[in-house]
Amino acid sequence: MSQVEQVRVGIIGLSASAARSRPAQELPQTDLTAICDLNEDLLGKVSAELGVERTFTDYERLLEQDDVDMVFIATRDADHCPMTIAALEAGKHVLVEKPMAPTVEECKQMLEAEERSGKKLAVNQVLRTNPRFIEAKRMADSGYLGEIFYCEADYVHNISRLIVGGWRGEARHRHTPFIGGGCHMIDLLRWCVGEVEEIFAYGSHKCIASEDYPFDDCNVSVLKFENGACGKFGATYGCQRPSTRNFMLYGTKATYVAGREYDTVTVSDDPNAAIRVDIPVQGHPFAPVISDFADAILNDTPAPISGRDVANTISVACAGNLSIETGEPVRPERFDF
Q1: Phi then psi for 93, rounded to 5 degrees?
Q2: Host H or E run for residue 99
Q3: What CATH number does the domain containing 65 carry?
Q4: What is the pLDDT of residues 51-79, one digit of tens each?
């Protein structure tokens, strides 16, 4: 570990609570020194709750602070790119909320800024630190499942209350189901199965009025992976059911299924052969993401969920959107990492 024992953190965007900020205050590797939000009432509430005295409504003022080494940007989607570039140019390491950015071009600009700055850029694809998906990744990498030949993932979440009258309904944010929420599941499929070579997608617009939301509110796709596996992925924003994240890995030796209450691993077609796997469900464990990134800064090691890696997630999501528009399969642009 370097001689510096803590990373001094600034949070830009409080997302209506202190959930993202608290780990930066409590973890041994980090020291929360400043917070920023446009909402002064929320800023005061979180400041009092966490005891953080320095508060800002202008993120550029926070970036001027010499005792901020890293910023966590958790603002609206279209703000991620310009704020990330500004932070990197100010000499700060950056952890940016998912989705990394609404377009591939913005991802490229962020990666170019990272390279120029010599600082680290990571993305809060928080489900990579969820115990359920860590176990899926372990099984996939260890060969326990055999060779994965098929996979399924669905992001099913009714967020119409956030879209209607909110920023997610504004066209400039490109908060489509594939990008806004679906990036979670695309990222997990890439993480566990491999890179996507081609995507063919359809969309429907039945649940949220067009004047409130300019994009299809339901997306579904088939995927071709570079390693020869195939898959199915969907995302919907208007469903009348509790939110769920369906995730299945079909291997030649076993099948992993992530359910709502617990996970199972099935080793044959015998219905009694299912092994129940009780793993604590932690939907958004922010602390491990912040902790791992802080460790990478302190030890000068690669960011564990790097921007160059996650740019491929956004590339698949954008390719899916383009497929819906054109009615043709699309090959996502590929970033090496």
Answers
A1: -70, 150
A2: none
A3: 3.40.50.720
A4: 999 999 999 999 999 999 999 999 999 99
To the nearest 10°, report the CA torsion of 240, 243, 246, 247.
Answer: 160
Burial class (CB in 10 A: 0-12, 13-18, 19+), 64: exposed
Could you tell me how far CA 166 lies from the centroid of its own chain?
20
DSSP assignment of 112-172: HHHHHHT--EEEE-GGGGSHHHHHHHHHHHHTTT-SEEEEEEEEE---HHHHTTSGGGSGG
User: What φ, ψ does residue 64 adopt, rounded to 5°?
Assistant: -80, -10
* Helix, strand or coil, per DSSP, at residue 257: strand
For 99-139, what is each residue's pLDDT tens digit? Answer: 999 999 999 999 999 999 999 999 999 999 988 899 899 99
How confident is residue 1, by pLDDT bands cut at 50, 70 and 90?
Answer: very low
Residues 115 and 187 in one domain: no
Mean pLDDT calculated for residue range 43-49:
93
In a domain, 106, yes or no: yes
Helix, strand, coil percentages in the chain from 3-state DSSP, rounded to 5: 35, 25, 40
φ, ψ (nearest 5 deg) of residue 106: -65, -40
Would you say residue 243 lies in a domain? yes
What is the chain's Cα-based Rg? 20
255-258 vs 244-251, strand pairing mode: antiparallel
Is the alpha carbon torsion for 189, 193, 196, 200 positive or negative?
A: negative
- Domain containing 121: what range? 7-125+285-301
Task: Note whether 48 and 195 are same-domain residues.
Answer: no
State the pTM of this model.
Answer: 0.93
**pLDDT given for residue 285 in this prediction:** 80
- 250 residue type, one letter: Y
Q: What are the backbone angles phi and psi of residue 132, rounded to the nearest 5°? A: -60, -45
